[in-house]
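hey so i finally got around to running both of the ones u sent me last week. sorry it took forever, my laptop kept dying halfway thru and i had to restart like 3 times lol. anyway pasting them below in the order u listed, first the sequence line then the structure token line for each. didnt double check formatting much so if smth looks off just lmk and ill redo it

first one:
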Amino acid sequence: MLILPAALTKTVVFPGSILPGAGMAGAGMAAMAGLWLAMTIVVGKGWCSYLCFFGGIEEGMAAVMPRAKLKKIDVRWRYGPWAVLLAMALLSLALFDSVYCMWLCPFKAVSEYVAARNTLGMVQNGIFVVLFAGLVIALPLLTKKRTQCAFFCPFGAFQSIFNKTSVFDVKIDRTRCSPCVLCKTACPTMSLTDESIAQGETLMSCMKCGACVDVCPKDAAVWHIKGTEVASKPERARLLLLYAAWGMAIMFGGSIIAQGLATILHVFI
């Protein structure tokens, strides 16, 4: 949404300033881009596991049911986020508007509705509610998957590209693997297939949540630092990833949590 309009028309499609202004320290696009770049270099799509607080809602819904009610999911749905990303980039270029944020983001239903002063605003809010109910509540309950992340989120697709440059990844040690495919079943974003397991790899969409590592009975799914041997001190790789991820989560979310608590206290005191 930002890159194409900026490159082709020299127009920044962003609801804010490029640099922070007085009284809005850290709120400018440059500060956000800097934080994003630092976090992405380290964790890649791990952003979706450790830094996206909206994903936690899906995670919670997926954990409610003991078993998935809807088990057969067409693997072609994995291409959904890429289709949405392409469509939103082209529409943003054509309309000079942040189309996804204004029309399709399910999490607007729990963050910020648009002003419903007319029919258009009411339609937008209705779309937010329907998408939230379907992608964030109903489908995670039925599938035990993070369906918004896996099938719709364009930012998740964009982050997948940076899994190639991230320091950490998850590997399958083929000398230990059965294969029992429990890892494939446990993956919340369908980032493991029979073919990728046979190759000892996760797919580009892996968000480094560690569900496959936790469920593997043979310790074949392991944390890995790129440039090292597979299964070479996986516990050290796990700890280094978690130190980095949680350190950045605190940095990124600390002010949000503090402001939220201050607002709650202000309401009740």
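and the second one:
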Amino acid sequence: MPDSPRFVLATGLSGAGKSQALRFLEDLGYFCVDNLPVSLIPTFAHLVLNSAHPRKRIAVCVDARAGEELLNLPGYVDEVAELGIRPDTLFMDSSDAVLVHRYSESRRRHPCAPKGSVEEGIRRERELLEPIRARADLVLDTSTMSVSELRERIAAMFSGAKEPQDMVVTVLSFGFKHGVPPEADLVLDVRFLPNPFYDPELRPWTGADPSVRAFVLDNPDAIEFLDRVKGLLKFLLPKYAAEPKSYLTIAVGCTGGRHRSVAVAQELMVFLRDLKQNARLRHRDLDSDAPIRP
């Protein structure tokens, strides 16, 4: 059975890594176009898919250079869907502080504030992009993401054939002290569970260690919490898949992202695999060099 067509719209904040994402998509065999006028997106999709030699993988990058026309972007994406293709919207994000730092290194002017400050440009760009971000299928925060990790995430999400019914679930552990992941669809706060930080023998290890895992999970509160969360996910996952939602990120947070969140995230992965769910596990702050605050 031939692969169904895939159409990826890559957009997001200037300096968040859209150009790199487009290059990685090109490496995966996508026919890529950068800075296509927003109004031409449906026409472009129609021409490429219905040409004498149609392409099965297409990616378009749209950014702040489109100006006020960005506000109309969701409508043009809907027009692509009317062609019989459900497009994937990839939104590249990053913290304001990181974006300002990247602009200071490149010494470029921000396209949304050519005569103003970078901070002004970022604020205006966020306003223009909010409608499309709100409906993005996948949000990637590149604030602390390496180039190799970005490549792996792009490959994991966009290398295979499009299967609308096969929702990809990412379980992401994190530390609240490093910020809540902007790509999270569901956030589970496990800071109420016993903290291995206070045990000198367990503190150096992570939630992947059997002794830390047992400390975190082998108590009545953790057992009841996981039982309730599993029941919630059994209810929610089919609803999200029927929406249809291509990607779902379940973020599990503790204070530093090294102990409790890691143990709970791994337990949820076992549960999801038992459900035959297409799931992936990622620990955002596991290797953070920052000291862990109790």
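quick thing i noticed on the 2nd:
The chain is about 40% helix and 15% strand.
anyway thats it, ttyl
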